[in-house]
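seq:
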Amino acid sequence: MRSDAILRQAHQRARRHALFGIALAALPWVAVAGALIWRTGATLAWLGLVAVLLVSTLHAWRRMRAMDARWLARTLDARRPDMEDSAALLLGLQPASGALPALQRVRLQTRIERGPAPELRIPWDARALAVSALLATIALSAVLLWPRSEPGTTTPGAQRADAASSSGAPPRLIARQLEIHPPGYTGLPVRRIDALSARVPVGTELRWTLRFAPEPAQAALVFLDGQRLPLRRDNDGAWRARRRVERGLLYTVEPAQPGRDGQPQMHRIDAIADRAPRVRVLQPASTLSTVQTGQRNWTVAFEAEDDYGLAATARLRVIRTEGSGENITSKEQALTLRGTGTGKRRRYGHTFALGALGLVPGDDLIVQLVVSDLQAPRPHEVASPSLILRWPPEVQEQAAGLDGMMKKVMPAYFRSQRQIIIDAEALLKEKPRITADEYLQRSDTIGVDQRLLRLRYGQFLGEESEGAPQLPTSDAPAEESGHESDLPTNDPAAPTTHDAPEPAAAAEGEDTHAPGDGHDHDDGAPAQRQAGFGEEQQVLERFGHTHDIPEAATLLDPKTRELLRAALDEMWQSEVNLRQAKPEAALPYAYRALDFIKRVQQSERIYLAKVGVDLPPIDPGRRLSGERAGLADRTDPMRAATAPDPTIANAWRALAPAADGAAARVDLDALARWMASREVQGGDPLAIAAAIQSLRRDPACAACRDRLRAQLWPLLARPPAAPAPRERAGRIGDAYLDALGREARP
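struct:
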């Protein structure tokens, strides 16, 4: 028999066994409900039978849902050591791509087919079944032995209700108790308070116990949203109810007790949400570390804390990157760490052996700790800042020239566009933890890398250097008119004049290019004489170069050339913002530059002959005619800003006391809908809701209007800053402006 058929049969046997156990536990209580129906025939007995059946069905559905394929994998791993914790691979829960996973899957299938059938049935809890049967037997005996009530007799509760209805005094609340059952993940004990207002965690179950004198016919808890929670009276005269709290509540008790202002007293339940864990890095001191000479180990340490408790284990993500430039690959794995300390604060640490990881020069090791709390059913997960261990690549020496006498130390690698984006995003995350000077310096360093990469790609468009050729009348020194300027030649805003004196060598007419730089110059020819003023041919021979024309220097097709030019433009904008310590503004340009570079790499190269530029012919008939037909309107009209929601402002103005003493009408329904439709920031929603309810019950209450107006004040939008008035131009300036106005009028 195949392994999948064997596992399917074992899985079905385990599910049937679990269903039989649930039915066995529910059978005694079905008998109790049936006996109660037989003795009394009351509607409550039928409801009890339906409740038993519903609870049993729900329990069976949840158990069958939990016993899915993942449960099968966990059970196989726990009961069959020969599965080697790889049952998920056998059941197809993990991809079997690769030679090793496929081989492991074949081995597990062979073991299932040749070995005994797996036993997956969960034993029944005999103790729980015995206790349930004993309690059901006691209840069944009480139902069968309880004497039938004679016609005409009344219960004590009915007698008290009749007495309360015959009495003319209103019921008063004489005793109250609130029992608080926090959710299990908080670890807080059950407590009881003699009050009806409390602050509890989200998910808490509240149990009210109230006593009235005289006894009312009925009582209930009325919530602000209109819901009613009936109070049920016990034989001892106490009224009880329970409810689970998922958000803040405002409610009153009916029969309501008047407060100091004569209105029903409002009680408040504040729901405190569980906060996410907080993670702090203890070691190393900085997020970016460099492998030192002789270093073999690297230790990381974290500290996490939570308001109620952390999970027993945490997950350490380990990412190793290999390669450089655009050819970077990464491998990720996860380690399970058990922290030390209390349940609310734990410390985690791990030491990496660099040799065992196979780390080599040029690789990066990135780690990140992921912790979770105990909130159920969806715990919070928080990741720590990423810690990077960088092993710089070895410095390479390259020989230049035929004899190899001169050597130049080249940079280890050019920063790729993707690496520039990664560094900029990492800098934004670290901004709150570093000083302004360090932030500026690191942003400028990334901008330098962006500049070097832009120059590297600019060579394919014929960009020889960043400096533009200077005119004979320029005072710029040679080093400013050479290759190291920070301004690109294709930038229209690039300056062309400088204030520094020109060296004597440049004044004597020497070419600023070095011999052997790749230009078509005759290195052995004598120095040319200095060009005279107006001699255009000699000026072009000295300062112009054919390879400075992008269209004549590249062998790329026009479409690819335009993509590369667009990438250079985006790199330029990214560099400008990085130099100004604005990484957040540089990232959109950097991403677009990366997209253009990828499109250039994927495009097809077409070698074309070098031809001149074919510009469209000029229509001489439209020159100097002033015709603007076909030209688009470049004006950008100002648009009105989106006005804030006036609901709060209108209500706040309407609540203001009038001079004549007449109270303005306030749309409380619109204000209540506004409060319910959004998350209120900066105010107290429950206090505002209570004030709205108080004013709705008594519209003439001046104190209620003042209380609601004070609660709405923090929610008002701050008005925008008004522009400062313009200073007067003075008598002469006014006369000049008046003259301009008269000229503008026809």
